[in-house]
Request: fold
Amino acid sequence: MKFTAPAEHNPIDQLKVVGHPHDRIDGRAKVTGTAAYAYERHQVAPQAAYGYMLGSAIAVGKITRLDTSQAEKAPGVLGVVTYKNAGRLKKSKSHASRLLAGPNVEHFDQAVALVVAETFEQAREGAKRLHIEYTSWPGRFDLAAEKVRAVPPKSNPMSGPPDTRVGDFESGFAQSPVQVDSTYTTPDQSHMMMEPHASIAAWHGDQLLVWTSNQMIAWAVRDLSETLSISPQKIHVSSPFIGGGFGGKLWIRADAVLAALGARLVKRPVKVALARHQIPNNTTHRPATIQRVRLGASKDGHIQAIAHDTTSGNLNGFREERAGSQSRLLYAGPNRLITHRLATLDLPEGNAMRAPGEAVGHLASEVALDELAVQLKMDPVELRLLNDIQFDPEKGPQRPFSSRKLKECLSEGARRFGWERRHPQPGQVREGNWLIGHGVASALRNSPTLESAARVRINSSGQLTVETDMTDIGTGSYTILAQTAAEMLGVPLHHVTVKLAESHFPVSCGSGGQFGGNSSCSGVYAACLRLRNALAHKAGWDVETTTFSDGHMSSAGQTRSLGEVAGPKGLSAQDKIEFGDSQKKWVQASFGAHFVELGVHRISGETRVRRLLGVFACGRILNPKTARSQLLGAMAMGLGAALMEGLAVDTRYGNFVNHDLAEYHVPVHADIPHTEVVILEELDDKSSPLKAKGVGELGICGLGAAIANAIYNATGVRLRDYPFTPDRLLSQLPPV
Ligand code: MOS
Reply:
């Protein structure tokens, strides 16, 4: 079906199943260890051999000698894949560099070999016996140094042109009596999902089967096809359970390609998991940014000029971090300038990580707002309310937001948090050695929608089966898709079985960009409408007058059970949702406001967050429990970005030094204080038939800025270089 006009009243509005906080239907399998992750799928590929990937020891250069003979003789070793025997491999358009190096090397830890053996230990031992010599060349590893050579990146279908201009920023800024001009930096960040990248591959004749951990099944097929130069019809990908992705598994990585090559070499299924330490340098990360934000305002706080200039870098000039995305939309102001520049670096590939662009964009833009409030001597909540806008500030009133409740989030949050008790002067509240502060930030995350297909089947006992190649990366897809189908056909939730993430299922939107829940449920909605039609047709009834409830369908005084109408062979229907130009007509984004209370230790410089409140408005909530979990997790990630996360670049050798969870710090339970998530009621009829919007990546946006602003309120120290580890605060804290 085509979604061309705002959704009218439809069966989802009954809210008999949708909108309820059902537990995740995969929850039991997850916690009992029976949900098999890619590396553990022993049944589908018995007797799999083990592959151990070896990464390049240099960043840029050439392999000058490659001797696999000792490795091949090692006990248990079955074969060694290198560029010499891999055949011709292409670089797909999804990747910045090739997934197997040789003889040229493009980045540190780029795969150079896969040793395949009977056991994991034998494969790893074999890898130690590889003899590889390199010549290395100087590389570009320092973003700050390369900034002068940065260039405008290409336009991109989802986020538009890299630069946008409205009015005349320069003169608007010059004429503003109150100005902020600040530069912020954010470091490279690693996804560090719990489940590492892992794949098992097997060949059945010329058919390639890959059981992997991937967010986007159809993209995985496409990219394997491009890389290996085989027809997509011969590639089968399966990824039913995924232990986190965060954007790091949007595209296949070396594990999948090397498993396929290894399996072809040793004529047996091969499994490959990346070791934790291989993830930061071998796979992708979120690129570092340098962001300059300029704000000009009138004395009463109306923003007159906004500029947000972002520089990021990437391998082979691949793609930029769109940190200015939210600045295009968040506040009013007649003169606007948003730019992105991209430097070419020889660090590993930078790519999407949860709320790409906006997550780190807010770390600059929402601190700049706080700096403006300080200059204006105005309450930062009030400043944000004053500059709210209900239409696209670049395009004008003819392009309204599909729905926007930023003001409501800010006001409700301020009320619940007790914002009025905050001391407006920084550094005034102390409890023992702790300096106490409060901060606020807005949150905006674009809410894209993507075409998504599904198939729904009903059998003679009225049981439904949903099939789509959608993935569940820990988000709750199984559950909300089942809720959607149950609502549409009027059956209880336990009569629905959801099957996901097989490449022979209808192609969905996949999990990414917080489009997954809304778009894939809309795909199931479309397929269910077809099935309702098919059932009505089979019963000889008019579908317009037919109602579906309690496992039955009724029309004109007649009632029959769905199973009976479906008959012994059952009935099935397939359709997809297409969104047409709905994203053009309306700006679609979800909104929120974060409130933070924290303490900064005046002697050690340590920051401890005490209280977090996030108030969000993101369309209809399909399942309050899974939505809340998404927001909670994203807020924890936002805290990590503010206080601890950062890959340390060795600018001599071009690698990320802290490549494990001992050295790349993410928040643990002890770091996360009492966190309250409040979701405001909202129906967005312009977004989809479900009237829902994106939830998954909203919570990470803005939280880190609220922490930065609270640190300022606590100490009077304005930090602009993330993360705010104690050493960065210590030297600036007032003397004790
Ligand atoms: Mo998301 S960074 O598109 O998985």
Notes: The chain is about 25% helix and 25% strand. The radius of gyration is 27 Å. The mean pLDDT is 97.
